[in-house]
Specification:
Strand content: 5-15%
Number of strands: 6
Strand order of the largest sheet: 2-3-1-6
Radius of gyration: 26 Å
Order of helices and strands: HHEHEEEEHHEHHHHH
Shape: elongated
Largest sheet: 4 strands, antiparallel
Structural class: alpha+beta
Number of helices: 10
Helix content: 55-70%
Length: 358
């Protein structure tokens, strides 16, 4: 494709690094400010809480306009019982019936439940899922009763709740999973650094790791700004991007290595080689990112149409990561390599600046 053929063009990406780097930094700082003020939108997976699944039968599958009314009834019941609503998600079950998944924050009467407050924990559990002796007076039962009364008065009884189930979500279990995921990611980053240092140079490895850190930080920043829920699927998205993003960076460094061996470029500077490598691989980087983005966006749209809205909690961070990864691979990683080579040269020469040769 001639449109995406940038080989031989003098793009001067390295010279514009002072422009590209602050843009990424502004996004990260903006996300940090949002997190400092509002915090991350931590989901039930890590914060703990309760979950009620209400099988609404088949009425809502053909009456989408009735969902906001149903949500209002559920919200009122949750509030009347002193609980805090986290979300209401709609999903379609295998048999075609519509299920409302109701998430409850780990709060009681507006206050977060302390891990040492056993009475509050017991009360929360009793409201959500009852106890061994009585499961008839739970929040799910009250939601069922309220919805059936509302349906009788407003939908001529055509809608009827078929089943309601409540359970407690143990956030501490997922917190351990989060810690293990972080350690696993750090271990993967360390292995990547060692691999790139062996295959290329230490400056290449360090530049690649800085680019990866940029991708993850931008993902977290945008997730905070758009108030996307942080749960297990978000951690999966981060790990996915860490593995995906490094590929485009390695392609550029591989091209840099090839150009350094070329006789025609033996007198070229690091900046000239980096710019040439970016131009030679830019078409490939754009096509790879666009084709992946198309699939992820299409998947998110299809799942939203089918009612699987929870897929967006995975798709949106992936989209953020893909864009951040393309940005860092093309506009940041190679310029960082040039900067690190220059710093390394100064250290070797006792602090004196010297033009690095390819």
């Amino acid at each position: 494709m001639k449109l995406l053929n940038f080989k031989g063009r003098n793009l001067k990406i390295v010279e514009k690094f002072k422009f590209f780097a602050p843009i990424a930094l502004c996004v990260i700082i903006a996300g940090a400010i949002v997190m400092g003020v509002l915090g991350l939108n931590v989901g039930l997976d890590f914060g703990g809480g309760g979950k009620i699944e209400v099988n609404m039968g088949y009425y809502l599958s053909s009456h989408e306009d009735a969902k906001p009314q149903v949500e209002k009834v559920i919200e009122d019941v949750v509030k009347d019982n002193g609980l805090d609503l986290s979300y209401i998600r709609w999903e379609n079950s295998n048999d075609g019936s519509v299920v409302a998944s109701v998430g409850l924050n780990y709060k009681l009467n507006g206050k977060k439940i302390d891990s040492k407050d056993l009475d509050a924990q017991s009360e929360f559990t009793k409201i959500v899922q009852g106890n061994e002796l009585d499961t008839s007076n739970t929040l799910g039962a009250k939601i069922t009763e309220a919805l059936n009364k509302y349906a009788e008065a407003n939908f001529n009884g055509e809608m009827e709740v078929e089943e309601t189930r409540g359970r407690i979500v143990n956030g501490s279990t997922f917190t351990k999973l989060l810690k293990n995921s972080i350690w696993a990611t750090l271990a993967a980053v360390a292995v990547i650094l060692i691999y790139i240092c062996i295959r290329f140079t230490f400056s290449s490895g360090l530049a690649a790791i800085i680019a990866l850190c940029h991708d993850v930080l931008v993902m977290i920043a945008l997730t905070a700004m758009f108030r996307i829920e942080v749960n297990v699927t978000f951690i999966a998205a981060v790990i996915t991007i860490v593995g995906y993003s490094i590929n485009a960076t390695i392609v550029i460094f591989d091209r840099i290595r090839e150009l350094k061996k070329a006789d025609s470029l033996k007198d070229a500077s690091d900046a000239e080689i980096a710019n040439r490598a970016i131009a030679d691989t830019l078409g490939r980087s754009i096509l790879t990112t666009l084709t992946t983005l198309v699939v992820i966006v299409a998947l998110a749209i299809v799942c939203s149409i089918m009612g699987v809205t929870s897929m967006n909690e995975f798709a949106l961070p992936i989209i953020f990561g893909l864009v951040a990864g393309a940005y860092s691979s093309v506009l940041l990683s190679a310029p960082m390599w040039v900067i690190l080579r220059k710093i390394g040269g100064k250290i070797k020469n006792g602090g004196k600046s010297k033009k690095q040769k390819a």
